[in-house]
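Figure 6 in text form: structure in, sequence out.
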């Protein structure tokens, strides 16, 4: 460690000066409901139809993009069908939306259906379809939030398979084929927690392969499989979602298992019927426990209506997924070119869930006179800004020696990482604070009056 004297001599030799004083800033939390990417309520849409994807007016940024493959249960997808899927992704991008795609070969018992409930495709056809979708998934990674495993059984929900695919080996083969076809930084959600335990631990009751912080986001298959619950809060077992409470398993144990994994993988789905477990007090408590990221706004309408009437709907809307609140920041009163910019801020995640897709964190200095930006990508992973936690972030940045003098706006930006949408502010993350969001630049402003002097 250098002494203060030797450090100052080093600063003089290197032409760097030290700031003599700091300013401490505090920020006001906002209770406003606003759009943020990769979280919140979603709407159901047919992805190949690409209609009515403009949902920002509802503060919705997600769609469940169903890919109805009833006509392809015995043959490969056609070029025309694949192009329609691409058109859907293009429309999502145009409208600032991210997609949760699911391929399903039937949609349950309903009038006019060409496929009966449970009808799916033979395994070799499914694997062919996954291979055909691989280029689309890579080309459209920027607007894919997460992939529903799909393909097998009724509604693509991994039960009642007409081809007998709802067994451990076929589930594993199809899941791993999806993971291999996806970009390495995208995740899959599958329908039943016990199936993930079975695939990775050897049995439905095994806890030998439970994802923890130590393995989070390491690119392994275990770290890329999250949880889909399409009957959330709908019975004591969420209509069979959870283990059938044999072999020592209870609802409490299921929830504890999920609570261990879901800070690091997606958890979402929909409600499917009214139940006492879905009342507001328990609903909010369980959403906190399970780090829920997204829910269907279209289903079940009676459950949504009860939340509205009981007064928790607004809180649920705001807290689904992450919700970052800037609490404080410390930065120098002023700096000169080539100075070391010491910046610290504290962020609190008051949402139910977290980020699970990678995202850069940038410190931005914008010249107020010219609007020219100096952008620093810092070494910080916001996926670890955990729900219910305050996270201090500290960074040291050396200012360019050519930085013009003047007054600057200093802010934090969390844009999409993909170049195709990185400059689209609809895909940037907004903090839940008053008078912080700069909608034109997608930046969360710390101060608009930061001097750069001689």
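Output sequence:
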């Amino acid at each position: 460690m250098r002494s203060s004297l030797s450090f100052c001599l080093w600063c003089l030799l290197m032409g760097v000066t030290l700031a003599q004083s700091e300013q401490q800033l505090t920020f006001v939390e906002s209770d406003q409901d606003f759009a943020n990417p990769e979280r919140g309520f979603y709407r159901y849409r047919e992805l190949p139809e690409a209609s009515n994807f403009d949902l920002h007016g509802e503060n919705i940024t997600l769609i469940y993009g169903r890919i109805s493959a009833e006509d392809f249960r015995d043959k490969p997808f056609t070029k025309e069908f694949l192009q329609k899927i691409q058109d859907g992704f293009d429309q999502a991008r145009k409208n600032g939306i991210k997609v949760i795609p699911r391929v399903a070969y039937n949609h349950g018992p309903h009038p006019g259906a060409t496929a009966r409930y449970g009808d799916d495709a033979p395994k070799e056809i499914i694997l062919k379809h996954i291979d055909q979708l691989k280029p689309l998934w890579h080309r459209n990674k920027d607007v894919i939030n997460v992939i529903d495993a799909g393909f097998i059984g009724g509604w693509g929900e991994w039960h009642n398979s007409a081809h007998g695919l709802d067994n451990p080996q076929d589930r594993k083969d199809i899941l791993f084929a999806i993971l291999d076809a996806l970009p390495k930084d995208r995740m899959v959600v599958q329908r039943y927690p016990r199936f993930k335990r079975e695939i990775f631990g050897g049995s439905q009751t095994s806890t030998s392969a439970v994802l923890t912080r130590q393995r989070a986001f390491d690119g392994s298959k275990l770290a890329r499989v999250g949880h889909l619950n399409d009957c959330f809060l709908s019975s004591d077992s969420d209509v069979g979602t959870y283990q059938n409470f044999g072999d020592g398993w209870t609802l409490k144990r299921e929830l504890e298992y999920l609570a261990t994994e879901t800070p690091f993988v997606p958890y979402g789905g929909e409600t499917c019927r009214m139940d006492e477990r879905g009342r507001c007090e328990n609903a909010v408590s369980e959403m906190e426990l399970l780090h829920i990221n997204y829910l269907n706004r279209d289903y079940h309408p009676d459950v949504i209506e009860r939340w509205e009437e009981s007064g928790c709907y607004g809180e649920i809307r705001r807290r689904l997924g992450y919700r970052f609140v800037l609490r404080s920041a410390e930065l120098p009163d002023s700096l000169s070119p080539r100075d070391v910019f010491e910046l610290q801020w504290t962020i609190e995640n008051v949402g139910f869930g977290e980020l699970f897709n990678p995202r850069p964190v940038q410190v931005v200095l914008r010249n107020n006179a010219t609007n020219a930006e100096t952008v620093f990508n810092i070494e910080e992973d916001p996926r670890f800004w955990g729900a219910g936690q305050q996270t201090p972030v500290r960074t040291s940045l050396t200012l360019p020696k050519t930085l013009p003098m003047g007054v600057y706006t200093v802010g934090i930006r969390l844009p999409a990482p993909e170049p195709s949408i990185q400059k689209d502010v609809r895909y940037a993350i907004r903090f839940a604070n008053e008078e912080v969001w700069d909608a034109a630049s997608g930046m969360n402003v710390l101060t608009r009056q930061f001097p750069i002097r001689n």
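Caption detail: The chain has two domains: 4-30+324-452, 40-319.
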